[in-house]
Design the sequence.
């Protein structure tokens, strides 16, 4: 006779965590505190303004035209062709849209898919700290070993002697990010050339996170984005990652892409087809049609530079020490002239007492390294920035 329902022991099995060191992210913590305290949230990196209505209309049009079923696993051909054409025009390298371009569910999915496709248990992957918070968990999920190499404190430039010392026969890949989140630095041509020389005698793969590629400032002074695509020795071993969400102010759409040589793309797609399979159809068609207007991304540096300059001008009236903001939509400041608190405690105090949320730089280091630097996001409406500056003027 089967036992009654009441007699069955209720038991939830205990799990051994795949990510035992991962808890609630600092972004979630600070955003929740900002909401609780009615603070201006300059912590998490997303715009508080709308995208071009023409882009939304293009999605609606695609839906109404019946483009609502599964697209090809690799992405709709017209979008992959548009991506390849953009890369060719901007950087002078030809990618085959059929075999070397893949549309992804955002850059975060792209990065974990790359890592799961190339990293085997025991492989080492070099990350340059401070770094975006998904890199390390992704490597751990693949069974790889994280090798942390710090960027130079204060300037956040790559230290090639330390990178060279970290290379070993077990090194499978290195992840770079330029323009860099969280420091807002941009790698120079000389730095990219030095990386190319360093990797040349190795089989190390490169994951180049370029999601802020269209946010490089001071073009009048010669500044530009030096994509890994531009360097043959890097491009031949590189997965290039970018994000439509960042470029077109639609972070919630979660659409990006990966460009890589055909042999690397083939392995990437083996994982891609099973962890996400494909990306929603109408948005892909909308993006493809919208990319016919290159001004949308070519004008982006000037758009964000104006916001950067407005924000920096206001911060200059405070006791913060402004660090350079060469790219992205972030501004980092040294807090040592404002407070004796550590970065994390300062951000909580700033949110609670001043009413402006920021993110501690220490959150981007595995060790929690505290150098008295915090990060603001200026991808906000002018009135949002002015409201924040009005509160920060108290400092």
Sequence:
């Amino acid at each position: 006779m089967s036992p009654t329902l009441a007699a069955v022991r209720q038991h939830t099995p205990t799990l051994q965590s795949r990510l035992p060191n991962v808890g609630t992210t600092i972004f979630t913590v600070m955003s929740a505190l900002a909401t609780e305290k009615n603070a201006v949230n300059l912590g998490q990196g997303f715009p508080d303004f709308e995208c071009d209505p023409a882009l939304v209309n293009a999605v609606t049009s695609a839906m109404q035209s019946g483009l609502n079923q599964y697209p090809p696993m690799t992405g709709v051909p017209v979008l992959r062709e548009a991506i390849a054409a953009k890369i060719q025009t901007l950087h002078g390298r030809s990618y085959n849209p059929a075999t070397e371009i893949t549309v992804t569910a955002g850059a975060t999915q792209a990065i974990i898919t790359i890592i799961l496709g190339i990293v085997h248990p025991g492989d080492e992957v070099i990350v340059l700290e401070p770094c975006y918070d998904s890199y390390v968990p992704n490597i751990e999920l693949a069974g790889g070993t994280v090798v942390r190499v710090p960027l130079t404190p204060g300037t956040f430039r790559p230290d090639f002697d330390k990178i060279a010392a970290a290379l070993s026969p077990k090194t499978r890949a290195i992840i770079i990010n330029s323009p860099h989140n969280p420091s807002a630095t941009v790698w120079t041509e000389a730095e990219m050339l030095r990386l190319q020389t360093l990797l040349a005698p190795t089989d190390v793969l490169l994951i180049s996170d370029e999601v802020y590629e269209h946010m490089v400032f001071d073009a009048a002074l010669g500044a530009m984005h030096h994509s890994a695509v531009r360097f043959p020795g890097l491009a031949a071993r590189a997965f290039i990652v970018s994000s439509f969400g960042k470029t077109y102010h639609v972070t919630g759409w979660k659409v990006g892409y990966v460009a890589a040589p055909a042999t690397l793309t083939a392995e990437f797609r083996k994982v891609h087809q099973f962890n996400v399979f494909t990306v929603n159809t109408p948005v892909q068609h909308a993006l493809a049609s919208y990319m016919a207007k290159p001004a949308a991304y070519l004008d982006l540096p000037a758009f964000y530079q104006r916001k950067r300059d407005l924000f920096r001008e206001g911060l200059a009236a405070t006791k913060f020490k402004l660090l350079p903001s060469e790219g992205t939509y972030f501004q980092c400041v040294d807090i040592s002239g404002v407070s004796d608190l550590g970065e994390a405690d300062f951000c909580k105090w700033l949110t609670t007492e001043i009413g402006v949320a920021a993110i501690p730089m220490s959150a981007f280091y595995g060790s929690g390294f505290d150098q008295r630097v915090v990060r603001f996001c200026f991808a906000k409406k002018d009135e949002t920035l002015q409201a924040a500056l009005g509160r920060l003027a108290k400092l």
In short: The chain has a mean pLDDT of 96. The CA atoms of residues 6 and 12 lie 16 Å apart. The chain has two domains: 5-51+298-392, 53-296.
